[in-house]
Design a protein that fits this description.
Strand content: under 5%
Largest sheet: 2 strands, antiparallel
Order of helices and strands: EHHEHHHHHHHHH
Strand order of the largest sheet: 1-2
Distance between the termini: 57 Å
Structural class: mainly alpha
């Protein structure tokens, strides 16, 4: 690459500049990371081991937990290591790999959330056709399409971004290597606009997914509100609301991160927003999905009888 000879490493944005705050950041991120590993690991193990949960909804939830683990493992360990070692550096190759992996996991997760909205739409609005429309082979193909789309998206953006000549320094205004932040270091406006155009194309596709999710839930709520029994309401909302909360958290924080005006570019704001959409969702998604899902809590009690779920 043409810029590989002049930039050998990047300097990431630090959460703190004093040793005490660096250690506090390390322990805080360690706690969040362990909570994400535990929560998502419990969901993956429970769904894999309990045959009652071998349904489309839980199959997609298992994939979501895998993506959450990949997403948080791409950014948090490196940030923890930098705080512990009191450094900001990441190698050029490491930055490219981190940017690719993060975009791969985050894009795949968004596409998977779109698939999960379709799953809830069919389950609520077309229950008699659920087994036909979402058979095991169809579910595998849909999950593979989400992972594959994320991979192609990440490959395209990473290859395009890191092929550009970078001459605006090597300081990245983010605590991990994020593609839009790397683009700010490009030399020419034409290269920058070309890369931004590619991002806008991807954003339009993401917006189409967002419209699909919204329309799916409009139809779902129209059907749910016609259900006469309170028990039917509770069952429908217990499976739909967690997904809706996760989607809302994911999209709202992502929109703030990627659609805020370039003039609003404060280091602290960048850190807070990136923390909200890259670290918080993987850590809280298991809690959101398990709180109102009695089926999942029962399976957790059976598989892990001495956990907190046994006493709830």
């Amino acid at each position: 690459m043409s810029n590989g000879s002049c930039i050998t490493e990047f300097l990431l944005l630090a959460f703190a500049d004093t040793r005490e705050l660096q250690l506090l950041h390390f322990w805080l991120f360690l706690g969040i990371y362990l909570a994400a590993l535990l929560g998502n690991g419990l969901i993956i193990t429970t769904i894999a081991c309990d045959h009652h949960l071998h349904t489309p909804m839980y199959f997609f939830l298992l994939n979501l937990s895998l993506l959450d683990l990949g997403c948080i493992s791409t950014t948090v360990p490196k940030s923890m290591a930098n705080s512990l070692l009191a450094t900001r550096a990441i190698s050029y190759g490491g930055c490219a790999a981190q940017g690719f992996m993060f975009l791969f996991f985050i894009s795949s997760e968004y596409f998977l959330l779109t698939v999960m909205a379709y799953d809830r739409y069919v389950a609520i609005c077309k229950p008699l056709h659920y087994g036909t429309l979402l058979g095991s082979r169809v579910c595998i193909h849909m999950a593979a399409a989400a992972w594959g789309s994320g991979f192609l998206c990440a490959l395209l953006h990473t290859a395009n971004t890191f092929s550009l000549p970078l001459c605006q320094g090597n300081a990245v205004e983010q605590f991990f290597c994020e593609i839009p932040q790397i683009l700010k270091l490009s030399c020419s406006d034409s290269d920058y606009l070309r890369a931004v155009g590619l991002l806008m194309f991807n954003a339009s596709f993401s917006f189409a997914c967002f419209v699909f999710i919204v329309l799916s839930y409009v139809q779902i709520f129209r059907v749910v509100l016609r259900i006469p029994s309170e028990q039917g309401w509770h069952k429908a909302f217990s499976t739909c609301l967690p997904h809706l909360v996760v989607v809302s958290l994911f999209i709202s924080t992502g929109m703030v991160a990627y659609m805020k005006p370039p003039s609003i570019s404060f280091s602290f704001l960048n850190l807070v927003v990136s923390f909200l959409y890259s670290v918080v969702p993987p850590a809280v998604n298991p809690l959101i999905y398990s709180m109102r899902n009695q089926e999942l809590k029962d399976a957790l009690r059976k598989l892990f009888p001495y956990t907190i779920f046994q006493h709830q």
